[in-house]
Amino acid sequence: MKKIQMVDLKGQYENIKERVDSSIMNVIETTAFINGPEVQEFQKELENYLNVKHVIPCANGTDALQIAMMGLGLQPGDEVITADFTFAATVEVIALLQLTPVLVDVDPVNFNIDIEAIKKAITPKTRAIVPVHLFGLAANMDEIMAIAEEHNLYVIEDNAQAIGANYVSKDGTKHKAGTIGHVASTSFFPSKNLGCYGDGGAIFTNDDDLAHIIRGIVNHGMYVRYHHDVVGVNSRLDSIQAAVLRAKLPHLDEYNAARIEAANKYTAAFENIENIVTPGGFDAENNLSERSHVFHQYTIKILNADRDALVNHLNEKGIPCGVYYPIPLHLQKAYRDERYKEEDFTVTNQLVKEVVSLPMHTELDNEQIKYITDTVINFVSK
Ligand SMILES: *Cc1c(COP(=O)(O)O)cnc(C)c1O
Q1: Which of 150, 171, 268, 362 is the most buried (most CB within 10 A)?
Q2: Which ligand 1 atom sits closest to the C-alpha of 134?
Q3: Index of the ligand 1 atom closest to the CA of residue 189
């Protein structure tokens, strides 16, 4: 059996090596390292793929979130509601901009921001909601957009984990995740579903005025060369990374389909096993055509067993795995606040003890999946 990896970037590279190598060499030959044609072309190709009016590439997914919030003109003291169960980048940029993070609980089935918890958290100071499409499944955007409209709030989608996922609204319209809110961010960190070979990110929006503002912010607040109209940042996607992304974008649907196939095999093996809860909140039969889960992570819940002992056991058996996330954000030292009450976080407080994410990438084979699922099942059935 091939050695099991949490993420297999090498196997994926080998299949697109010729295109990647020649594109990278071409950037070097032409020395258009910053904002070269590869960046411009990638931007257009991603706009077409997502069916969104504007893609603004930037340096990473964390910058993308920060710049989106700057572009919306959020001011210190404005409250921004986001999920307690996510990667820290989301709350980090809120705090960094001196906005007030308002962390709320998540849904126990799909792990995304809880709709009732959002409603409860709204105050006269609330200005925005940041749903995170966690592990590859879009949050309930119909409900979130309705709440936002009612209370006149912005919606910033953190789409770092769900690029390529579909979302079908109640009215039947089909969208790509990250094109429904007022603005969205994504990350091209190597292990993401569309990853480059270093850092990268992008902001998406259908709003022409906002896109214009953001294009200036990413470039030192310049709209006319050496005229700095607003305080900006320096955040660029470099041309070598754009060249890698252009080679991979045409394969994104195929990559996501391979993830879904691996996920379906995991789920089939775990289906009737007591104490294992497989990912929910989407229609597995219609995945990719309806509200799809593109499995940035395949995360199960382990009930009535020692999750940490399972993690150790898997590692001993040569199976890498991850606990995303081991600590709720409201309990992290940097983000603790006396406003938070433990009884408002019953779901995240429980999830951090139960979740484990299994190896997930485009190159998993049947033998590996069988070995992984057998090892997990044997452990929980002991
Ligand atoms: C990866 C990730 C980010 C940050 O992306 P970087 O490119 O690493 O800065 C933000 N939010 C979520 C949910 C992520 O998974």
Answers
A1: 362
A2: 13
A3: 7
